[in-house]
Amino acid sequence: MLEEMRARQGAGWRIFNKQLPIIYQGSRYALRLPIGKKEILKQGANQDLVRFYKDWYRPELMALVAVGDFNPNQVQALFEKYFNAIESTPSRNKQKPSYIIPDNLAPLVTIETDPELTRTTVEIQIKHALIEPVTYQQYYQTLVAQLFISMLNGRLDEATLTPNAPVIGAGSRFGRFRADKSAFTLAATAKPSQSKEVVAFLLTELNRVLQHGFTHSELERYKQGLLSKLDNAAKEIDSTQSSRLADEYVRHIVRGESIAGIEHYLEMGEKFLPLITLDQVNTIGKTWFTANNRIIKISAPESDQSSLPSNVELLAWIEHMTQQQVTVYQDSQVIQQLMPEKPKAGSIISKVYDEKLDSHIWILSNGVKVVLKQTDFKQDEIQFSARAHGGYSLLEPETMFKTIMAANIVEMSGVANYTLADIAKFSKDKQFWVRAKINSDNQSVSGSSSVKDIEHFMQMLHLKFVSPRKDKAAFASYISRVESSIVDRFNSPQGVFSEQIRLRQYSQNPRSMKFDAEIVKDQDLDESYRFYQQRFSNAANFNFIFVGNIDFLQMEILLSTYIASLPSITKKENAIIHDTLRTKGKLTVKVEKGLVPKATVLINFYGDSPWSHNNQMHLNALEYVLSSILRERIREEKSGVYGINVNSAFSRLRNQYSTKISFTCDPNRIEELVTEIHKVIETLKLRQTEDKYIDNYIAQKLKTRETKLATNSFWKNYLQWHADDEYPQLNLTELFWLVGSVNKLNLKDAANSYLNIDDSLTAILLPQATKTNAD
């Protein structure tokens, strides 16, 4: 628990602890949080823990929840067998205390700074009594509240996209605050030294709603959007994860939350949403934004100190803005059709059925290969991906640096004649999305759609290829937001630490980039747009994968119309595999920065090795086994960490691997824990792994595979790999055989190959040497 506390510490934690006695003024939460105090954990006697356990871990205070594919009578019998024997202890009869958050007439204000914060945030909250919706009338009001918040967030999103907006992002919510209170919250992340402008931004948009209300067109659009989400959820009731249902039952037990079930929620939505009036939605906002129970919070980097107000000035800003009259919102006309005119259709020139994968391979007249797999895992989902080799590997470093955000820049601009805001309004009552990306070695498009929106999806996919939009205003707005979001990145110890690791490993690589405000400012709109167009100019370079509830007759028409009509040439491209020029040898990095008495340790083993399915599987097994042993040894036996992470990666294109071990700990225990980690590694290299770790890996991997086989996302990725002519083919039978083939010998070989201390980096982040580091 002490290491959990240590891991939490940082700029955000320090700010929160300063805010705590103010925002929870007059309540128990102002004194401490439920996790407890360090002093008690360090000095408390064993009998105190026993007493706490006996007071609160009593069967009459507990509940059992089981959700899954099982025989309920059998599970009930197991419950009774193992839990009926536990005797209740009513003699202790310790009552759970009930804590409240008192109301406040005067606003509670907290303005805090920290040298390690990287962004300024502004929050305005108004507390209200917490009501769990358990009646029809209360659920009706919940729908009204959801509509208000969704429409206000739509307004804030749209305003954020304007070139001179003072915010990086903004939003609102209504929900649980703590204890017996809920809260209406307006929040924004500010651009540097813009806290006053952000307060004005938030209250201007709120005032616009409170003074003039929403429009009828907005209300109808958001009603349809909410109903569409309820309908989609109801269609997927049979594929809902057991964990989600279990969590819902737990919330019912702990909070008294209703468990009506999604079908009933849909039924209520269909009944109530048409009855909700514009006046009801407009009125609820006025009841939320009251003069009492206000909390105003600003947190900022110390570099923003001079631009921050005093408490009195902040309240004066808010009072002034609350009284201002604002103009009426003009709801722009919603797109009726993404493509008023359909493109000249192509055709499907060949169809092949792959019996092994139960998939269909269609070749279109423009050379595009399409792979389709019909599934019934979800009734209202079709997932999609398309990928082609190339990406930034085809650019020289100088051009790469000034176009590194090309896909995002085009995304923020919209498509054809439509802005991002136009598309957001059009999509509000629909269930589909499409996103293009450009990576180091490839370019790709991904997305998903409901069954009824598949033609909208296809039209957007077509436009992503043929009609990217270049918008100078959208470019300026986006660059301003990104630059503002990272300008103080290196206030954070972790930011400095990561940069020093990059420099140590890749200082000789001209393609290695420090992503900072200067890189963002250097982005070139024309070059980015041109590069995006070039990367998506040849549809035949991509393999298109569709998986889900597919109607083949409909898909034949849609593919002929929207995909076979894409411009293509027969020439296929490949990525250029550049040498990473990673510094070899046994490297170390030591950084002293930060106020928290904690160390961050990263041990990275890396090198060159031929990729194969076998080698990938053995590296995966090594990651699992090493993670399991280190958790037992470092966390449980030595109590040295709250968590320890092991992550491995293997690049097929570059034939390079890496295995990273990372954790935070007491700075005084670094040497002890690192030494223990290397002892574990040496044991693995000597083939001294216990059978249970390998057995657990095989069982876990097979179970995970079994679960994944019933998901559209697994098949989408699997078919994408197999559609690539350069990817070594492996069928599912071979894949399962590979999992079962893991043993002590190949785990030993993997440890010796992939945990080589002579090609490794050990990086340590320590707190800077000041008196404030005292533990």
Automatic annotation (TrEMBL):
Domain Peptidase M16 C-terminal intervals? 47-226, 525-699
One GO MF annotation is: metal ion binding
Q: Which Pfam families match?
A: Peptidase_M16_C
Q: What Gene3D superfamilies does UniProt report for this protein, alphabetically?
A: Metalloenzyme, LuxS/M16 peptidase-like
What's the protein called, per UniProt?
Answer: Peptidase M16 C-terminal domain-containing protein
- This chain's source organism reads Paraglaciecola psychrophila 170
Which taxonomic lineage does the organism of this UniProt entry have? Answer: Bacteria, Pseudomonadati, Pseudomonadota, Gammaproteobacteria, Alteromonadales
